[in-house]
Model the fold of this input.
Amino acid sequence: MANESSQVQQNPFASAVEAQLQRVEAFYAQLADLETKALEQHKTAIEESARLSRESIAYGATLAAEWRKASLEATRRTLEMMTTGNGMFPKMPANPFMPFSG
Done:
């Protein structure tokens, strides 16, 4: 081992290779840290997207329920105006085949 280490110190090519290997190891260590951070950000983005999807679905359901309620109320008011004669429509006759019989 001592012989190998003295060869590395004496051989400039071997010491350049060793230095390059250390830089490559440092690069891969940094790359691993960046991958970990990127995966965490992807996970957070996916969770946020899922949360927004759930909220959108819930909002859509609420909106549909409110629309049904408003539509039913408008239909009810229209029919009420048509049947009571208090609105812009005349009161419907009891017998539609003889509308103005006395």
Notes: Residues 2-84 form one domain. The longest helix spans residues 12-84.
